[in-house]
Recover the amino acids of this structure.
């Protein structure tokens, strides 16, 4: 038997319902913020990620799925969403449109060759937003609020927002120099990965999870001491706006995030429930004012985030939140014999086009097992189609909740169903939770 690739999973059953539900909720939410949908290719030219995510990031160094296409071009399955959206913004000259900032949202698969474990897949899905063209710290706070409000709408309780500022280019460079000087004195005690980070991007050493490094990291210079006046002002305003939005946050001076392109605000939302596991970061994002230029576009300040949907679903499961609506079917159609199928399929189509959900028995089930199937599908009405129904154009309809039976002529069918479909007076529907 051929099995799925390591680190991937199939979406079906409840997982499918949850993903569709959360994506729908997110789409509705971002529309309230006036965002537009964007979709970019699952693969891009490799150097897009080298230049954006950065050669010093773990993602590009160790985790990308790279391949040559048949035209001998270097291609990469996208490991994250921002680079493709920014490429699209530049290539389609969205910066020339009058309605800036461009507010875009996306949902789709990302690919990283990571060691599979709980909460870490090789194909996973992210919901994300990118705002291109506004330098305003108010936008940083609004972007953070979208993630927080998604969690609020879903009813997730144990979430914690962590923020930090990496400052503008000038502040980052000053801090980089300070870190280089500090870590040069501790180079021998750092792990091998960090020795490499020291050369490529010393900021990333702060993100190291290796135990032996923790004291050295704790005593490292703090970004806050190297922020210039402009960067301090930006950061202070972000915090003020978060307060105005009633969003609690924790400042973490060691939060640097895994991608190289961030400036000013960086943030993470964590599932802070005991026992949740180490892969507890549900959302990561920040401001990236220099990325559009790096990719040969015009200067365009920008901010965004990505939410991992698999981890979000694990967190919801953890808090016993169902995150999808119970499925129900409006009408279950039972043709009694082969001869009744032609009439049944035509009627089912007409009902579906009138807005009802309809399923039709295609396994020639017995009457008894058809009733059971209608129950399993949580069908509200059952229509039995036999010879007399066909000849007289009068349908036998059973209300599967009240168990009452009706005879309805075909001309009055839609009106009858419309009237009946709303409120149901059966005991179960009126049961108070
Ligand atoms: P990043 O793009 O690394 O900032 O990640 C943003 C979010 O995507 C994380 O907070 C996770 O929720 C999710 N994520 C990242 N990598 C993985 C992975 N390998 N498997 C599942 N979710 C992931």
């Amino acid at each position: 038997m051929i099995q799925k690739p390591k680190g991937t999973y199939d979406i079906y059953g409840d997982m499918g319902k949850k993903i569709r539900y959360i994506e729908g909720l997110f789409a509705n939410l971002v529309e309230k913020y006036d965002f537009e949908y964007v979709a970019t290719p699952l693969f891009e030219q490799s150097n897009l990620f080298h230049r954006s995510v950065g050669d010093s990031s773990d993602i590009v160094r160790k985790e990308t799925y790279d391949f040559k296409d048949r035209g001998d071009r270097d291609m990469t399955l996208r490991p994250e969403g921002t680079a493709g959206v920014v490429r699209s913004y530049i290539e389609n000259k969205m910066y020339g449109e009058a309605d800036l900032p461009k507010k875009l949202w996306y949902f789709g698969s990302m690919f990283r060759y990571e060691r599979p474990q709980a909460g870490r897949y090789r194909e996973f899905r992210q919901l994300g937003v990118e705002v291109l063209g506004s330098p305003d710290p108010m936008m940083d706070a609004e972007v953070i609020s979208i993630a927080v409000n998604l969690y609020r709408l879903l009813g997730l309780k144990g979430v914690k927002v962590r923020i930090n500022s990496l400052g503008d280019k000038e502040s980052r460079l000053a801090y980089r120099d300070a870190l280089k000087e500090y870590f040069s004195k501790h180079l021998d005690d750092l792990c091998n990965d960090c020795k490499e980070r020291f050369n490529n991007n010393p900021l990333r050493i702060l993100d190291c999870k290796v135990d032996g490094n923790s004291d050295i990291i704790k005593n490292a210079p703090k970004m806050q001491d190297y922020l210039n006046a402009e960067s301090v002002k930006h950061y202070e305003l972000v915090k003020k706006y978060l307060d105005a939005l009633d969003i609690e946050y924790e400042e973490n001076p060691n939060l640097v995030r895994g991608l190289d392109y961030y400036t000013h605000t960086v943030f993470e939302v964590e599932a802070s429930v005991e026992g949740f596991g180490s892969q507890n970061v549900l959302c990561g994002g920040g401001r990236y004012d220099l990325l559009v230029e790096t990719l040969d576009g015009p200067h365009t300040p920008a901010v965004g985030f990505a939410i991992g949907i698999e981890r979000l679903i694990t967190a919801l499961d953890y808090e016993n939140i169902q995150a999808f609506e119970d499925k129900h079917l409006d009408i279950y159609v039972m043709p009694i014999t082969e001869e009744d199928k032609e009439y049944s399929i035509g009627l089912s189509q007409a009902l579906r086009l009138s807005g009802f959900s309809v399923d039709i028995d295609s396994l020639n089930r017995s009457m008894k097992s058809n009733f059971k199937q209608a129950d399993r599908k949580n069908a509200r009405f059952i229509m039995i189609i036999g010879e007399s129904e066909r000849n007289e154009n009068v349908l036998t309809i059973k209300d599967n909740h009240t168990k009452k039976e009706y005879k309805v002529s075909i001309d009055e069918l839609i009106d009858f169903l419309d009237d009946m479909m709303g409120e149901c007076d059966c005991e179960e529907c009126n049961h108070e939770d």
Notes: The longest helix spans residues 13-32. Residues 13-168+228-318 form a domain with the BirA Bifunctional Protein; domain 2 fold (CATH 3.30.930.10). The first strand starts at residue 36 and ends at 37.
